[in-house]
Amino acid sequence: MIAALIAAAVAAATPTPDYGIAEGQCRPHETGPAAVVTVEGLRDRTGKLRLELYSPVDGEFGGDDRDLVRDGKVFRRAVMPIPASGPVEMCIRAPHAGEWALILIHERAGRKKFDPFMDGAGFSGNPRVGKKKPPAAEARIEIGRGPTPTAIRLNYLHGLFQFGPIKDPVT
Q1: 32-57 pLDDT, tens per residue?
Q2: How much is the pLDDT for 116?
Q3: How far apart are the C-alpha atoms of 19 and 112, rounded to whole Å?
Q4: Three-state SS string across 99-116, please?
Q5: 94-118: pLDDT as tens digits
């Protein structure tokens, strides 16, 4: 009994690795392959933004970060608090120039797991969003040898299971 309690306490105290952040966070004045994303359509300025980069392959796009890292697949993540005012931009590094796919999450409640009733989501290429993520082909982006500008519009749940941009965004 005591051993089980100690094991549970150690597990709770051990930080969960945040996969992909070390590789994904842009450096100041980034010059390498990266996507510089202008965030559009924020519902509000609460929580934080999480931008993730994937291979544009359906089996990998939007996959579990632990599985992707374990299997040696490309996965990058950048996280930032939402500024109180002004335009919002995020930068995420790519391993090399080429085709990639991006997912942007507005974590309004501050959890690491997407909550469709609270959080917003958007994808590179701004495909129409339904009840599930779009195919990887609809979220492809070509990232060059240096920072590549793009814009992603966030979508939120409206009514009964209908996602889309909000009418009066704060950005």
Answers
A1: 999 999 999 999 999 999 999 999 99
A2: 85
A3: 12
A4: EEEEEEEEECCCCCCCCC
A5: 999 999 999 999 999 877 788 888 9
Please list the helix, strand and coil fractions of the chain in percent, rounded to the nearest 5, in that order: 15, 35, 50
Partners of 148 in the β-ladder: 35
pTM of the shown model: 0.85
Question: Exposure string (b/e) for 95-120, b if CB count within 10 Å is 16 or more?
Answer: beeeebbbbbbbbbeeeeebeeebbb
Q: Looking at residue 168, what DSSP letter applies?
A: S
CA–CA separation, 89 and 147 (whole Å): 12
Q: 3-class DSSP state for residue 26?
A: coil
Look at residues 54, 19, 36, 18 and name the one whose alpha carbon lies nearest to residue 92: 36
